[in-house]
């Protein structure tokens, strides 16, 4: 048995070595602009080019750019580009955003149908027609019905979140071996099947057809859900763009399309339901858009990964599996239990690799702030829609418009206000510190700056003010204004995540971002469960208590910002090994700038 395993292991090593020769390893792993001229010539010769430009490319406009490696899958478009995926990606986000309010109302209507059928022995067909009418009867807006529908939505979100947290990384890893296009199609099949099951539940005459929502959440989560599709789209963008600001711009375009689609979808759903009088009309349109998305991916979008890279990933995966099998044969039960700890990657947010204590403390504080803010964001929309429908008797139409307004506010904050606010704060802090004689250039600061903390703190203050108004308002229009005001704090989470990344050396950036992604998956499971449980338990006597919890969380975030140390100098590591890397990245220090790293106030003391 052992000899057979050793033989398989040796064969896998030989296959990996054959697929990844030293020359190809250099070509694959070394950034193109850092390769010597002979490697560039080798790439050009391999691609059949007779002319070789030895000038390295940069991502600056007007300079030579990196050629895409080797051949890609044969489609109508032969050259992979982010623009070939942006438009179909918009179809995906519009469908996701448009289904939010109708899905909540379908659950509410199905629970209402069962409730009155049991109370009044009513025919099951009459309440069912209200599901198709796109509205919820006024008599359904009672605590008992909202309490049960909130519990159903809580468990649906829990199933989707747990399965999505476990499967997203698997689907993303699978895309390295079989290509982005097949993996993206797999990720999209889950939401497609999920929507089909929701339509079946709404059309069924069974009084307990709302139980099909759990099956719907299973298919949605097991394929990676919405987060898995977004992750693969980001991987596609990474394949098509060189490192530098072009890649950052590509990610920004995908984020812009993401939030724009999620803001536009609810408005389109409201107009469609209002026009047709059919609460399921947008689900049918959404299925058509998802089919169109799949067809565009299959026939028009080229594969961004080359066959060589996929073969190398397969060989590496096979070798890793054999190594893991060999390790498991000699593993103690304690080690086996440690390997099952899915929370282990979170250790990257409090590293013990020689990172300075003040940096570790900052990372832990900022990670806590990020977890709390993302948890509030992920649960807020669902709770707000259910509360507004219970309090103001809104239908899917009004709820859809509400989601659109607050979504547009968030898009405006991220794409328009945030860059200008950052520029204003940066200018203000620089003038203030220069007047005090304490100014330190950004390239000498390791970790969070005053600007980072100011943005986070001001965002928390805006959210605190908004939720105080939520607790006081009883008018639908004021409720809409409060929702828009609360979304002005949309800069909190991205600013916090950007600040966390500043506390990690470049070699650990991937681990830190992966840990942040895991914390978001945890927040997606815990936060909606917590808020919906509280809402369902208190709706009969004090439904506004959820606003008290939101307010408390943002007050905690506001207080935590005062514990974050800013403008830390002297490196991230205790031995200062990362200082040379930072200086190399930023070039020579300007003569007017201090060349000696400053110590923090705490360390001077």
Short note summarizing the structure:
The chain has 23 helices and no strands. By secondary structure, it is an all-alpha fold.
Structure description:
Helix 4 packs across helix 11 and helix 7 runs parallel beside helix 10. The protein has 4 domains: 27 residues; 37 residues, no CATH class; 243 residues, Growth Hormone, Chain: A, CATH 1.20.1250.20; 206 residues, MFS general substrate transporter like domains (Growth Hormone, Chain: A, Up-down Bundle). It is built from 23 helices and no strands. With 605 residues, the protein is mainly alpha-helical. The chain is globular. 71% of the residues lie in helices and 0% in strands. The C terminus is likely disordered.
Set out the fold topology.
Layout: H1 2-19, H2 22-29, H3 37-46, H4 83-98, H5 100-120, H6 125-132, H7 143-178, H8 180-203, H9 212-222, H10 225-240, H11 245-276, H12 281-299, H13 307-329, H14 333-339, H15 357-392, H16 396-436, H17 450-472, H18 476-487, H19 492-501, H20 509-538, H21 545-560, H22 579-586, H23 601-604
Labels describing this entry:
mainly alpha, single chain, Growth Hormone, Chain: A, 605 residues
Main sheet: strands, sense, barrel: none
Write down the domain tally. Answer: 4
The residue fraction in helices comes out at over 70%
Number of helices: 23
| Cα-based radius of gyration, to the nearest Å | 27 Å
General form:
globular
């Amino acid at each position: 048995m052992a000899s057979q395993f050793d033989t398989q292991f040796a064969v896998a090593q030989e296959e990996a070595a054959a697929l990844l020769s030293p020359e190809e390893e250099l070509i694959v792993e070394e950034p193109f602009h850092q390769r010597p001229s002979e490697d560039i010539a080798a790439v050009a010769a391999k691609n059949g080019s007779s002319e070789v430009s030895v000038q390295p490319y940069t991502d600056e406009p007007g300079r030579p750019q990196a050629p895409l490696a080797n051949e890609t899958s044969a489609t109508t478009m032969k050259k992979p580009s982010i623009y070939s995926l942006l438009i179909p990606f918009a179809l995906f986000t519009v469908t996701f955003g448009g289904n939010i309010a109708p899905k909540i109302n379908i659950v509410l209507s199905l629970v209402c149908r069962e409730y009155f059928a049991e109370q009044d022995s009513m025919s099951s067909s009459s309440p069912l027609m209200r599901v198709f009418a796109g509205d919820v009867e006024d008599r359904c807006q009672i605590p008992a019905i909202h309490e049960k529908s909130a519990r159903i939505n809580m468990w649906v979100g829990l199933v989707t979140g747990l399965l999505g947290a476990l499967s997203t990384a698997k689907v993303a890893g699978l895309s390295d071996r079989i290509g982005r296009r097949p993996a993206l199609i797999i990720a999209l099949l889950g939401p497609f099947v999920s929507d089909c099951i929701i339509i079946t539940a709404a059309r069924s005459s069974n009084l307990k057809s709302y139980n099909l929502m759990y099956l719907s959440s299973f298919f949605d989560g097991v394929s990676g859900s919405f987060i898995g599709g977004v992750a693969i789209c980001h991987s596609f963008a990474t394949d098509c763009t060189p490192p530098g600001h072009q890649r950052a711009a590509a990610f920004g375009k995908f984020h812009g399309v993401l939030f724009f689609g999620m803001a536009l979808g609810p408005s389109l759903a409201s107009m469609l339901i209002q026009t047709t009088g059919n609460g399921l009309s947008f689900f049918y349109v959404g299925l058509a858009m998802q089919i169109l998305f799949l067809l565009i991916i299959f026939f028009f979008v080229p594969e961004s990964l080359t066959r060589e890279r996929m073969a190398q990933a397969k060989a590496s995966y096979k070798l890793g599996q054999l190594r893991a099998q060999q390790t498991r044969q000699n593993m103690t039960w304690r080690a086996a239990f440690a390997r099952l700890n899915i929370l282990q990657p979170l250790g990257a947010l409090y590293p013990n690799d020689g990172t300075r204590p003040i940096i570790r403390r900052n990372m832990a504080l900022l990670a806590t702030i990020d977890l709390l803010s993302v948890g509030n964001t992920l649960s807020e929309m669902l709770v707000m829609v259910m509360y507004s429908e219970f309090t103001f008797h809104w239908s899917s139409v009004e709820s859809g418009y509400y989601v659109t307004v607050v979504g547009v506010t968030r898009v405006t904050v991220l794409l328009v206000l945030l860059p200008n606010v950052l520029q204003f704060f940066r200018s203000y802090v620089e003038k203030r510190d220069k007047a005090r004689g304490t100014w330190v250039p950004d390239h000498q600061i390791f970790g969070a700056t005053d600007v980072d903390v100011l943005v986070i703190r001001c965002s928390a203050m805006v959210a605190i003010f908004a939720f105080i108004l939520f607790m006081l308002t009883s008018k639908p229009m004021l409720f809409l204004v409060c929702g828009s005001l609360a979304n002005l704090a949309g800069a909190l989470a991205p600013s916090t995540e950007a600040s966390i990344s500043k506390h990690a050396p470049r070699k650990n950036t991937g681990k830190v971002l992966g840990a942040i992604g895991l914390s978001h998956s945890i927040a997606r499971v815990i936060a909606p469960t917590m808020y919906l449980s509280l809402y369902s338990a208190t709706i009969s006597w004090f439904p506004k208590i959820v606003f008290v919890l939101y307010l408390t969380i943002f007050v905690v975030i506001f207080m935590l910002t005062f514990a974050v140390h800013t403008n830390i100098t002297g490196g991230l590591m205790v031995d200062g090994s990362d200082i040379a890397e930072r200086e190399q990245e930023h070039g020579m220090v300007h003569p007017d700038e201090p060349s000696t790293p400053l110590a923090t106030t705490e360390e001077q003391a």
